[in-house]
Structure formats: structure tokens, C-alpha cells
Amino acid sequence: MSEETRRRDSAATRQVLRDAAIELFAERGYDRTTVRDIAARAGVNQALLFRYFGTKEALFEDATAGHRREETDAPKLVAEMLGNLLDPSSSARRDQVLTALLRTLGTDDEAAAIRERLNAGYAETLATLTDQPHAALRADLVLAWLFGISLMRGVAATQPLAGADPAVVRDLVLPAVRVLLEKSS
Fold first, then answer.
1. Residues 28 and 91 in one domain
2. In this structure, is residue 185 part of a structural domain?
3. Angle between helices 35-42 and 46-53 (to 10 degrees)
4. Is residue 99 domain-shared with residue 165, that is, in the same domain?
5. If you placed Cys at 22, which of 63, 75, 78, 83 could pair as Cys (CB 3.0 to 4.6 Å)?
6. DSSP E strands: which ranges in the chain?
């Protein structure tokens, strides 16, 4: 994309910055990725990064938003999350996002706080799906399973999960999740 096109298309410039950021965060981790590196990879001046995102922290949060809950109808949230994790058309970006999020584990920086906020949004919504004891723990267990599926399927490419038909995976996972997040009658 040329500089001229980007100047006239703020959405495209934002996307180029997001893509460059998630690639670098996945390769190097949050701490070792600089704003200058992101701008250089995107082929733009770093002033545009600050213009569109304000800070590296805000760009990280925006770039990893693929793991943010978008479904507001709580009963459909797990099916939507699982569908996004299993969608082969988004696997490369999803794997980069997951790798970037995993690289923030064990750190005490802004990225770890962002990762916690993203996960908390999911966990809070999932916890509303059950009225059983330990709702928060049940929600965390579901999240752990979903992120584990994504890690094993995409990043580690472990067979047979990596090659499994998404419909089969969904049909096996959703009934078990329903049991974990059940409501009393």
C-alpha cells in the first residue's frame, strides 16, 4: 500500500499498523517491540501510530482484540468464541494474537494488564451462564479449555486436533461446556 493511499484511508492505515504490531508482538513479545519497529514494519511514520492509537499499550489492546468478547448474547458467546478459534480463514492472525498474548504471561507490564482485562471480560460474561457454585472458576475453566484448543490446534499444530473438522470439534466441545456452565431448572 502506498503512502498516498494510506494518507487517504485511515482505516487501511490503522489495519496496517495493527498487522505490523501483532506480527512483532508475536515474534518479540510486548516488551521488546518498540513503536519505531511497528511503524517501520507498517511502512509509516511513527507519528501515525500515536495519531491513531495514542500509545503502544492502546495498540496492543486493539491488535489483540480478536480475543475480546463481541457477542453480547451470553448463551451464544461460547459458540462464537469456538467458531472464531476454529475458523481456518482467520487462523494465521489468530495464532499471532494468541502467541502475542502468551508472550505476556508472567510479565508485570501494561500488556499483562491488558491481557487480564480482555480475559476478565470473557470470564465475567461466561460466569453469568451458570447459577451453580464456583461460577467464576467454571468460567475460567471454559476459557482455559478454549485457549488450550487454540494453542494446540493452531500454534502447536498437534494432531489430530489441528486437522480435525471444525464441526466435529464444536459438536464435542459445546455439550461439555453446557454441563460446566449449566443452570438449575
1. no
2. no
3. 100
4. yes
5. 63
6. none
Which grid coordinates are listed for 63? 491488535
Grid cell 466441545 is found at: 173
Cell 489483540 found at:
64
The per-residue pLDDT string of the chain (185 residues; one tens digit each, 9 = 90 and over) reads 555 544 568 889 999 999 899 888 878 888 888 999 999 999 999 999 999 999 988 888 887 765 444 444 555 777 777 777 777 665 555 556 666 666 666 565 666 676 676 667 778 888 888 999 999 999 889 888 888 887 888 778 899 998 999 889 989 998 988 888 888 86
Q: How far apart are CA 166 and CA 117, in angstroms?
A: 28
Which amino acid is residue 163, in one-letter code? G
> What is this structure's pTM?
0.60
- Helix, strand, coil fractions of the chain, as percent rounded to 5: 75, 0, 25
